[in-house]
Design brief:
The structure holds two protein chains of two kinds. Chain A is mostly helical. Chain A is built from eight helices and no strands. The chains are: A mainly alpha, B mainly alpha.
Chain lengths: ~180, ~110
């Protein structure tokens, strides 16, 4: 069934329809949460929190509107909440040092290094730029949809994507095309 | 990675694939199962009621409004006059009068 039909049924309180939407959007939700928190267990916690929050608020969702920006906004908010709580938790702790990794000599190591560098480059971006570039380039969302997720004008989304891409290009410039 | 065009209005599929690879982890099925389980656990009867209540209230209000418009206005009830001013009239037939006299005589032992 297509998204609009599932969303309409879910908005009417149908748990099966909402479950189908969970299945459909969990990978993207995980990447968005991972872009905010870093890929890991906390991102999965945020995905769960986000879906639960969306289900509890489903009666407020307007089925005449697109479902995925609404859902991603809820998931992104859940990830931000978790991020804030984590910052409060870590406030008194010593800063975490990056684990030292032995360089691996093979191509797998190159791929791994590329992924790590890309993750690190994403982390350096402001949160909204990160979400914008992940949704635009990795998830194929349009500017208008991202504007709805981030609650900013479309022009601002274009600016976020532009700056994020430029920063990523600079960070990854040293890699050859086949390292990726 | 030098082919990323920041001005491009279309998604950069090469960059997108690399971002997905950087953020993806194995075990998406386990995550979906976990979320679905959490949804079932979280769905107490009160949650179900809360989800349906706003729609139910709106529907009930709409139905009440429709009924209110459709129902004819009730005719005003006739107003009775003051009791003190109502004429009192006793009609006693001749046979009834005799029965009353007989009853009174029996009661008084005459």
């Amino acid at each position: 069934m297509e998204e609009a039909g599932l969303a309409r049924r879910a908005a009417g309180g149908d748990p099966e329809a909402f479950g189908a939407l969970v299945e459909r959007y969990a990978p993207a939700a995980r990447r968005v949460a991972g872009a905010i928190l870093g890929p890991g267990d906390e991102a999965d916690d945020a995905v769960q929190d986000g879906f639960l929050a969306a289900w509890k608020a489903i009666a407020r969702f307007d089925p005449d509107r697109a479902f995925r920006p609404w859902l991603m906004r809820v998931v992104a908010n859940a990830a931000r909440d978790l991020h804030r709580r984590r910052k409060v938790r870590q406030a008194g702790e010593l800063p975490e040092h990056a684990a030292s990794r032995d360089p691996l000599p093979d191509r797998a190591a190159d791929h791994s290094l590329f992924r790590e560098t890309l993750r690190a480059a994403l982390e350096t971006l402001p949160e909204r730029q990160r979400i914008a570039v992940v949704l635009f380039d990795a998830e194929g969302y349009g500017h208008a949809e991202i504007a709805e997720v981030l609650q900013v004008p479309e022009g601002t989304v274009r600016s976020y994507v532009f700056h994020a891409r430029r920063a990523l290009r600079q960070a990854l410039g040293a890699f050859r095309e086949d390292d990726a | 990675m030098t082919d990323i065009t920041p001005f491009d209005d279309r998604p950069d599929e090469a960059l997108g694939a690399r971002i997905r690879a950087a953020l993806d982890r194995p075990g998406i099925e386990a995550l979906v199962a976990r979320v679905r389980g959490a949804l079932v656990e979280a769905d107490s009867p009160w949650d179900v009621l809360a989800r349906w209540a706003p729609r139910g209230l709106v529907a009930a209000a709409a139905a009440a409004a429709v009924l209110w418009f459709l129902m004819p206005a009730p005719a005003p009830a006739p107003v009775p006059g003051p009791i003190a001013s109502a004429p009192v009239q006793m009609e006693v037939s001749p046979g009834q009068a005799e029965a009353v006299v007989l009853t009174v005589a029996l009661l008084e032992g005459r």
